[in-house]
Amino acid sequence: MKYSDALKKSELLVQKMTVEEKISQLLYNSPAIERLGINEYNWWNEALHGVARAGTATVFPQAIGLAASFDTELLHQVADAISTEARAKYNQSVKYGDRDIYKGLTFWSPNVNIFRDPRWGRGQETFGEDPFLTAEMGCSFIKGLQGEGDFLKSTACAKHFAVHSGPEGIRHGFDAQASEKDIRETYLPAFEFAVKKAGVMGIMGAYNRTNGQPCCAHTHLMQDILFDEWGFKGYYVSDCGAISDIYANHHYTASHTESAAVALKRGCDLNCGEIYRQLIDAYEEDMITEEEIDAAAQRVFAIRFMLGEFENERPYYDIPYSKLDCEEHKALNLQMARESLVLLKNENGFLPLSPEKISSIAAVGPNVLSTTALEGNYHGRASEYITVADGIRRVFGSSQVNVAEGSKLAHEKLNDWDGFGNMRSTGVAAAAASEVTVLCLGLDRTIEGEEGCSLDIADYCEKGDKKTLFLPKTQQRLAEEVCKNCENVIVVVMAGSQIDVGETVRKHAKAIIQAWYPGGVGGLAIAELIAGKYSPSGRLPLTFYYGDAPLPDFTDYSMKGRTYRFIETEPLYPFGYGLSYTSFEYSGARAEAKDGNTVMHVTVKNTGKVPGAETVQVYAKYTDSRCVTPNCQLCGIRKVFLEPGESREVEIETDGYWLKAVNNEGKRIEPDGEIILYVGGHQPDPLSEKLSGSKCISVKLR
Description:
By secondary structure, the chain is of the alpha/beta class. The protein has three domains: 3-322, TIM Barrel, CATH 3.20.20; 330-552, Glycoside hydrolase family 3 C-terminal domain (Rossmann fold); 584-700, Immunoglobulin-like (Sandwich). Helix content is 29%, strand content 18%. The chain has 21 helices and 25 strands. The chain has a six-stranded mixed sheet with strand order 9-16-15-12-10-11, sandwiched between helices. Strand 13 (461-462) and strand 14 (465-466) form a beta hairpin. The longest helix has 24 residues, at 72-95. The protein is globular, with a radius of gyration of 25 Å. It starts with a helix and ends with a strand.
């Protein structure tokens, strides 16, 4: 059903309502209107990396891990599987009269904010630090979630609009100050593509202010850009409690009633919270008109019509309950987990290991038995979890496997009567008794995540944000002692952000794997990578800094010195970097114009001895531009699987949008000088070339 047709149907329905009834439908927990055949509906649902908070569902890798795959086609399949499970759940919820929270089809995902600072706890929910990668992955996810049938399979909602990425502890009253250049060049592109390319049906406003105005009542962001410039057709929803913040924390209005009125007038249709109950007071005090209430009610009901709620026979009604975390989706989950893992170090080809040749292996560390570290935040419940220890037992079954946690994630308690406060000696003993140790370190959502959902640990994190890029001290001590007592150490870091394991561990470890929060079957994917069941192809979707690197102030939203695009020092590991078990050769690069876009053609050959997928990346560099331009800008990605000796010509089309420079007024203009396109398995910087042992090849556009 087209949006225009749904809007006409909703207009007719809304005309039959009283003012009080219309207002009641602008709350996320909308009540039933029985005389009109309208059931109660709870708009709040989550699907960041699987249907969340509603029981059994496939738990795919956390969003930052999905981004590390650089695989838009696979992500589309993942999102389609999520929407299939969403319909399966919805069908049963309706059947049994359960219309509670998290049971609907309006998902408040994906999070397309930019992971601009590695300390941000919610960065794990994003697709990384780059606007192009975020836009591409976001569009694939949105299209997969919403489907391509006559009715929406479910609805996506791009959040948090806009210029939002911490700190968590002050988000309810914080004013993010950003230049128009940074806003247009970095913070808005993913939202723009979500609207224009993916047809996203929902936009969620952020908690904070941006340049003085609350994001759920913002004249420039909402009215000038989203509605007028981009022509957004869908519904706008506040983050949960954000309308209350307008008065209580931003002090932008004189009352909650005025906050409700100003948010509605500027285009916020739906309130996740309770403040819109005061719209009746605003109406009676002539702060808003009935026409403005009607417009919002019509937009929210248009979505419900497009989902097929009011059809005699609901669309997708025949998707059965058995699709939840089914074998097909578990297989897809395993494939995505494999592609999400990033091999950061592999000294002298230490990996892969042959299970038949390993006599004993230790699985040590606070995340080795953890299912919480598989899940990340905004998660569902898998029907089966495969931890790292489980995966190693399955893959290295003939070896002696010694398992020990060795430490807690961050808390260490001496003389602990419960007996689990100090376990370092058990972890070191397991490592010392083994030929190889898999040291599983990192964090989980109890440490990094959303304000109010994570613990405060005085010397490590606050309100979900990290205070340091190093490991918690108790893990650092464990890691260093394991390295002293075991020669062959493989470090696996499970975290939603970057962690520097420290120079001692970095130098001693034979291999380092960044595993993110790898999903319900993530432990198996990790073990298979170690054993060489497949060749790794994941790439870093964000820059990894040295733990003691000076970072800009967390509250500074200027992009100067941030991310690979504007970094001024050498990082620990660059954006776009990741190793493979095979090697690839690039040749014959050429570029041609096509309908305002640029198409890169390049031949990629697997020159190694094992099959593998290459993550082809295209970057643009500018010379002699009158605008400040990025060091380089990712503008094309493609995953290609090749057998040993096989070669294939790859075609990657780049939207002309990404090849323009952005001036201080935020306008995209043709750069003055040359544009050079680089293509390879990483970005065209000296450190990537040094770490990977390969170079990009280039084509001059002009």
